[in-house]
Amino acid sequence: MIEKIEQLLQEVDHLQASNTEELEALRIKYLSKKGAINALMADFRHVPADQKKAVGMRLNELKDKAQEKIAALKEQFEAQDTGLDDIDLTRTAYPVGLGTRHPLSIVKNEIIDIFARMGFNIANGPEVEDDLHVYTKLNFAADHPARDMQDTFFVNVNPNDVTKNIILRSHTSSVQVRTMEQAQPPIRVICPGRVYRNEAISYRAHCFFHQVEGLYIDKGVTFTDLKQVLLLFAQEMFGSDTKIRLRPSYFPFTEPSAEMDISCNICGGTGCPFCKQTGWVEILGCGMVDPNVLEACGIDSNVYSGYAFGMGIERITNLKYQVKDLRMFSENDTRFLREFEAAY
Ligand SMILES: [Zn+2]
User: Fold this and answer.
1) For residue 306, what is the enclosing H or E element?
2) Which of 49, 86, 172, 324, by CA, is between 20 and 30 Å from 160?
């Protein structure tokens, strides 16, 4: 019997199969119920008692080896099987469903593109910020209402030092502060990003929205430079007939400050419900950077001056596409999103 086992061990060692049918035949020959190894197992009771141990060990070795060898051959065939035989190359292809860019991304990219052509770089910063960068360095008084719980989302309140409060940024001006801290003029950046405010969600307000802010600081920058850049932007964005007007306003971080209107791009300035019959729609806030802000960020306000502006991407998108409900932007309704398939 031991000779038979040794012979099978030799055989198993050299097993070859060129296809899965041959492999199956080998499996039946050696490992099936009526196979060679099971036959030996059945004969095992006739082995003399003093040889049982040695023969038994060898027999188990044979069984293990046969199983291993056949499993290895099987794996080899599976690796070679590319499934090509199952593909019907004559069949009509499935239509590929193309996604669409989100309207806010479309408009954001367009804004970035316009300012990039005017030499602005993109700056990014964290959405979870400290009070120092969102308010203090931007000249917000300690008791400014924007710091109130009703306007700002607080992550962590520091009872001893208001500037160490951790909050969700309520405007992207915090990125301007970080840029000024890290670089000396000339600085020319735009900061696109998401901002958060503690507002009840309705068709015209949301607890998060998107802004693009711009900042230019150098020697001898004046309000005229600001006005020209904003006029160019408005005409690139809404058409070459677009007019702008600036109205005096107030922001803590700019002096003087202004809000900019453009001639209503829906009625062309003649008056419609969208512009409340005035012919003008407000699109952004701007102004000359307050010297206090420059000094707080380590820039000499006696040498340098600069302007800043900021706009809501949702607002610009509404003007371009007349989306009447802000909530549409965050509801992921594919019927709404598919309307922008033609835009790039
Ligand atoms: Zn109008």
Assistant:
1) strand 305-312
2) 172
